[in-house]
Write a structure and sequence with these properties.
The protein has one domain: Helix Hairpins (Orthogonal Bundle). The chain is built from five helices and no strands. The protein has 136 residues and is mostly helical.
């Protein structure tokens, strides 16, 4: 039920194209996966005394870094379930980041294409409005 509601949020934003909606959905998915993995990581790791993941914010920071596939190495889970969550988040993060970066690239290409089309139209209008070039 919650997933269905969250996926429909971008559909109700006026004036956005389907690519923008897909971009927002991907960004929303990344945030939701990071938050849910942070909650799971915190609950798995809080039982261990020597774990560096001692708060919810630390767990969120850890999962955001892991999902971005940076992985500084300063924080390492101690429990087996924490390590399983880490490996799952790394794989999911790599896939989600790949899709997210592809959408950024496609949006940049679309904006660049739109810019060059407008430039060509302006050059064509200038050529037709200049009488010296037409008689030429």
């Amino acid at each position: 039920m919650l997933r269905a509601c969250l996926w429909r949020i971008p559909q109700h934003i006026p004036g956005s194209t389907s690519e923008d909606k897909l971009f927002r959905q991907c960004l929303l998915t990344i945030v939701i996966v990071t938050l849910s993995a942070s909650v799971m990581m915190y609950h798995c790791e809080r039982a261990h005394a020597e774990t560096p993941i001692t708060s919810g914010m630390t767990a969120f920071w850890y999962n955001a870094i892991i999902m971005a596939t940076v992985g500084y190495g300063g924080l390492v889970p101690k429990s087996v379930t924490g390590k399983i969550i880490t490996s799952t988040c790394t794989l999911n993060g790599a896939l989600l980041m790949m899709v997210f970066l592809q959408m950024l690239y496609l949006n940049a290409c679309r904006a660049s294409d739109h810019y060059y089309r407008l430039r060509e139209k302006q050059k064509t209008r200038q050529a037709w409005s200049d009488p010296a070039e037409r008689s030429g």
